[in-house]
């Protein structure tokens, strides 16, 4: 990535992050203040406008460094993957250290430790929690509310197989820019699966193709060379190899996360004008 990629560089014509002093020219440099997302999933946009496209989403508990605020909007950078943009300032609160994260596809926050209580908030897989105590089958959150403990896991315990994580999302709708279990796009599925396994991952497919460490395979070689977990890249799209015959991806073809035949999928996408561009076997 170039240093001035808008998506990951907290700099604008009028200001830049203090960490970019001497790297990016700006009339003003700002230290920034860390906040935390307190909504299920908040859209991050390139402009402070609700009609603007959605670049990505931040999930409950994710950190966000704010460099500027105006008219109910906050501009800054996501802590998890470095994405830069605008989001609703009302979706942010003071930071708290994460102790757990949601491991189920989705779960709920209740006002009291009872599954019969009215739900206060829905949480997506990967949401970060700050638990103050255990109360029976529930975790009491430091701010407010209770989460069913079996749906969460300590923040330092990771999954071991990104493909198995991705399989939990089968049938979830495709959503451009989405990153939650209510809807997500192809690169978000890969990022979510890797993050659940404690593996760093950029947000967009071109970043993933270029930056993920690992072996680069010949995209013109036989499909038999592929192994579970290999990443297949087309222009603007990514899929994960599931086994010797299938792949899993979030696709606009069916508007879902789906399992598709490996040979059939590669041929179908090529026929639509996008041949397989690269294969990465991540470290």
Please describe what this structure looks like.
InterPro entries: NLP_P60_dom, Papain-like_cys_pep_sf, PG_Endopeptidase_C40, SH3_16. It comes from Labrys okinawensis. One of its GO terms (biological process) is proteolysis. The structure is a single chain. The protein has 283 residues and is mainly beta. It has three domains: 78 residues, SH3 type barrels, CATH 2.30.30.40; 55 residues, Roll (SH3 type barrels), CATH 2.30.30; 121 residues, endopeptidase domain like (from Nostoc punctiforme) (endopeptidase fold (from Nostoc punctiforme), Alpha-Beta Complex), CATH 3.90.1720. The chain has four helices and 25 strands. The strands form seven sheets. The chain has a six-stranded antiparallel beta sheet. The chain has a five-stranded antiparallel beta sheet with strand order 8-7-6-3-9, with no helix packed on it. A five-stranded antiparallel beta sheet has the order 12-11-16-15-14, with no helix packed on it. It starts with 15 loop residues before the first strand and ends with a strand.
CATH architecture of the largest domain: Alpha-Beta Complex
* Ends apart, CA distance between termini: 19 Å
Listing every helix as H and every strand as E from the N terminus to the C terminus, the arrangement reads: EEEEEEEEEEEEEEEEEHEEHHEEEEEHE
**Strand coverage percent:** 35-45%
Which residues form runs of ≥5 with pLDDT under 50? none
Give the domain tally: 3
Class per helix and strand makeup: mainly beta
Number of helices: 4
What is the CATH T-level topology of the largest domain? endopeptidase fold (from Nostoc punctiforme)
Pfam families: NLPC_P60, SH3_16
Family: Belongs to the peptidase C40 family.
Protein name: Peptidase P60
Domain NlpC/P60: 156-280
